[in-house]
Amino acid sequence: MQKLKISSAELVARAKAKIEEVETEDAISLVNDPGVLFVDIRDIRERQRFGFIPGSFHCPRGMAEFWVDPESPYFKEIFAENRRFIFHCAAGWRSALTVATLNEMGFQAAHLKDGFGDWVKQGGAVETETE
């Protein structure tokens, strides 16, 4: 087995040390704020299986850098809006890495510190897709 120079846990810790983290309780109070957009970077199957934050925008983690970049052919206009962007995943690991990268690019965003799992645990509203 190949020995890694740095673990994934260390990468996440380094990312979290340099980004804005939003506590779940604070995030829940922002769910109806039109100036805030929650960006869900989980896999689409996670959204379908576990639900999502009402009004959240789905942006697959692998596309985030391309969707926020106005010079990219994949740019999404929603990321040009004058809003506060709070990214999230299930536990706050993927979103920490994503937001650290986006901040490095010059895109201002925060992330939900403990992810969607804690959102649900603390009673945050959850929406599901209707068939």
Task: Give the beta-strand count.
Answer: 5
CATH class: Alpha Beta
Mean pLDDT: 96
Q: Estimate what percentage of residues fall within beta strands.
A: 5-15%
In total, how many domains does the architecture comprise? 1
Number of helices: 6
Distance between the termini: 45 Å
Q: Estimate percent helicity.
A: 25-40%
Rg, Å, rounded:
15 Å
In short:
The protein is α/β, with parallel strands linked by helices and 131 residues long. The protein has helices spanning 8-17, 24-28, 44-50, 64-68, 93-105, 115-121, and strands at residues 20-22, 36-40, 57-58, 84-88, 110-112.
Would you mind describing this structure in some detail?
The chain has 131 residues and is of the alpha/beta class. It has one domain: 3-Layer(aba) Sandwich (Oxidized Rhodanese, domain 1), CATH 3.40.250.10. The protein has 6 helices and 5 strands, in the order H-E-H-E-H-E-H-E-H-E-H. The longest helix is centred in the C-terminal third of the chain and has 13 residues, at 93-105.
Keywords:
single chain, 131 residues, alpha/beta, Oxidized Rhodanese, domain 1, 5-stranded parallel β-sheet, 6 helices, 5 strands, 36% helix, globular
Topology diagram in text:
Elements: H1 8-17, E1 20-22, H2 24-28, E2 36-40, H3 44-50, E3 57-58, H4 64-68, E4 84-88, H5 93-105, E5 110-112, H6 115-121
Parallel strand pairs: 1-5, 2-3, 2-4, 4-5
